[in-house]
């Protein structure tokens, strides 16, 4: 383990990168949520440091609700939890991509994805 | 056409929704860029009203660069233009999803996607 760490100083023992996520002035980053199986983009929500930590600890997506100004355990009221399989970070470390196994529709309208309206 | 319009008052003649995009206080919305063929999420960038208009007019992705504070025709310097096939809007109309045919890597690092680092 120690040797592996020295060879790959920026990865943990599972080969995942250790990256300092760059939260914005409000302490938030956008998180794109993608269905791991189908590739469908389901929604975009915001995470603060605590939401990211809870997501990693529980394996279920947590966000920061900007409208309600509170932590939001996705599915806590609807039952449509999102089981997070992978978390990726972009090149400038200010956006996350969550690959998930959703327990139900992502959207509060009942649509599978929040992106159900094509405009062009 | 007129009849169709009356039956579907919120769609144009191609069946696309007419939605008022809700730009934030800075006049911006995040845009998720997805490879139309592979489903890979390539990047997230920001659009203002002009970037969205230019994208629709030219068929190539334009963004607003927050770091440079200027309009950014993706690929203008690298040649890696993004041909936009579809634009979708989310349920609360404050996030866009662009399905594109990319002419080359999305990321300035040369990676196909900006999300090339898995963190969990």
Task: Give a structural overview.
The structure is a homodimer of 120-residue chains. The first copy, chain A, is built from two helices and seven strands. Chain A has 120 residues and is α+β, with helices and mostly antiparallel strands. Residues 1-7 of chain A have low confidence and may be disordered. Chain A binds chain B through residues 15-19, 21, 30, 32, 34, 38-41, 43-44, 56, 84, 86-92, 95, 97, 107-109, 111, 114-120, and chain B through 15-19, 21, 30, 32, 34, 38-41, 43-44, 56, 84, 86-92, 95, 97, 107-109, 111, 114-120. Strand 5 (82-89) of chain A pairs antiparallel with strand 7 of chain B.
Q: What's the arrangement of secondary structure elements?
A:
Two copies of one chain form a homodimer.
Chain A (H helix, E strand, L loop, with lengths): L1 H6 L21 E7 L5 E7 L1 H10 L3 E4 L4 E4 L8 E8 L6 E7 L14 E2 L2
- Mean residue pLDDT of chain A: 92
* Unreliable residue runs of chain A: 1-7
Q: Give the helix/strand class of chain A.
A: alpha+beta
Per DSSP, what share of the residues of chain A sits in E-state strands of 2 or more residues?
25-35%
Our Rg estimate of chain A from Cα atoms comes to 15 Å
How large is the count of helical segments of chain A?
A: 2
N→C terminal distance of chain A: 51 Å
Strand order of the largest sheet of chain A: 2-1-6-5
């Amino acid at each position: 383990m120690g040797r592996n760490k020295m060879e790959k100083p920026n990865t943990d023992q599972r080969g995942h990168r250790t990256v300092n996520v760059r939260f914005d002035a409000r302490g938030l980053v956008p998180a794109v949520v993608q269905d791991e199986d189908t590739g469908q983009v389901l929604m975009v929500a915001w995470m603060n440091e605590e939401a990211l930590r809870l997501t990693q600890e529980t394996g279920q997506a947590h966000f920061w609700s900007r409208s309600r100004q509170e932590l939001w355990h996705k599915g806590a009221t609807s039952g449509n939890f999102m089981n997070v399989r992978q978390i990726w970070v972009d090149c400038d470390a200010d956006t996350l991509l969550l690959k998930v196994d959703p327990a139900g529709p992502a959207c509060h309208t009942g649509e599978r994805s929040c992106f159900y309206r094509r405009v062009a």
